Amino acid sequence: MTAVPVDKVAPADKAVPAQHPTVDERREDGRQARRDTPLAMLAELADSDRDPISLLESQAEARVPELVPIRYGRMSASRFSFFRGAALVMCDDLSRNRNSDMNTQLCGDAHLSNFGVYATPERKLAFDINDFDETYPGPFEWDVKRLAASLAIAGKDNGYSGKERRKITVGCAAEYRETMIRQAELGNLAVWYSHIEPEDGLEELSIQIKKRMLERARSTLDKARRRDSVQAASKFTEIVDGRRRFISDPPLIVPVEELYDGRDLEDVEEVLHGRIRSYRSTLQWDRRVLLQSFEMMHIARKVVGVGSVGTRAWMILMKGRDADDPLILQVKQALPSVLSGYVNGPIFRNEGERVVNGQRLMQASSDIFLGWERGPGPDELEHDFYIRQLRDGKGSAVIEGMKPEGMEAYGRLCARVLAYAHARSGDRIAIAEYLGEGTEFDLAISEFAAAYTKRNARDHAALMTAIDTGRVTAQTGI
C-alpha cells in the first residue's frame, strides 16, 4: 500500500443518523474483520522508502522557524526521544500495512510518556492519556502499536534484554485485549465512566514491583498533587514594580512585549483580551462565569515538549482574588493531525476544536478550562489553538532508569486506559470479538514492536547524520 493523502468525508459537525445494530450483528462484524485481516497480519511492518527527515522537515514549515532547531536537538537526545517526536513518521509507516478497518477515536500519539496523572474537576487525581494533539478517528490498533513500540524502544534505551522487552510488550497488548473484552460485557454508561484512580493503580503495582520503585511512584503522585497554578506561578513568574509577570528566559520563555517589540502594546493587549472572550464562549456556561472572575495580567510564549517544539504555545497569567490567587492557562497551537492525511475522517473548521472534542471523548474527565480559539499571531497569520490549565495536578512516570518489572506494570496501566478510551467511541463488542480470547493479538503486537524498534533506531541514526552533515540544524541541551 502506498501512503497517499485520502479524500475527506463530511465536516465534523454534520449530523449523521445513529445506527443501532444488535449485539450479535456487532460480534459478526468483528469476526468478519478478523477474516479480512487475520491477527497475524498486525505483526507486519511493510518496507518503506520514505525519508524520515523529509517528513520532519514538512512539519517544520508550519512552525516557528527559530524554534525548529530545538525540536531536532531534543529528538536527537536518544532513540526514544526521536520516537516521541516522530508521530508523523510512524503514521506514514502504519498506513502502508493492512489494518483492521475497525475505527475508534485515536490518541494518535499514544507513547508511554503521553500517559500520566492529572487533577479532575472533583479534585481527585486520575490516570489517563494526557496528550491529544494528534487525536483523530482511525484503526484502533494504530494506538496500540505506538504504545507497544514506545515500550520496546524505551526498554532498549534502558538496556533491557530482548526477552524482557518481549514480556513487556506482550503484557501491554494482553492488557488491552483483556480490558476490551471486559468492556464489551458492560453497559454503555459503565463503559463511559470507566477509569483508573492512581491509588488503585499503585495497589496493583505493589504486587509486581519492588518497594523502592513503589516509593518512587508514590513520590510522583505527591509531586503531581502540588503541581497547580500557584506552583507554576512560583516557577515561571516574578514581581516587577508590584505586578506579577512572567520571567524572561529566551528561547524557552519569552514575554509578549519582547516578541512584539516596537509595536503598541495597548493595541496588542486589546486584541488578546478579545481572543480570551472568544475562547470563553467555547466553555460550559458555569465555567465561563468562573473564568470571567479572573483578570488577565500577562502573556508569554513557552517552548513545550519534544514533538511539539516549534508550534506556537503561550502561557496566560490571570489574577483571581489577588496576586496570590493565580490561574495560568496554556494556549497551544493545533495543527492538522498527522493521521488526517492517511485515513478517512472528518474535516474540522478549527483544529483546536478537534483536539478538545477528541480529548473530551477519550478522557474519563477533562480540565474545566478546556476550550479552543482562533486568531492571528505575531506573524499576522491565522492559527488554531486549544486552551487548558498549564498545570493542574499533572505528572508522569520517569522512564529513564525504570526497571523492567516496573515498565511492564506501567505499560499494562497505559494499555488499560487506552482500551477504556477506545471503548467509549469505537464498537467495543466488535473489537473484542476481533481480538479474541487467545494470545495471537498479543504476540502480533509484540512482534511489530520489536521490528519497529529496529526501524526507529535507523531513523534516529538518519537524524544524527542529517545534523552532522548540516542538512538540519539542532540546538541541544535546551
UniProtKB/TrEMBL annotation:
Short name of any one Pfam family annotated for the protein: DUF2252
Positions with biased composition (Basic and acidic residues): 22-36
Start and end residues of each stretch annotated as Disordered: 1-36
Designated name of the protein: DUF2252 domain-containing protein
Organism: Rhodococcus globerulus
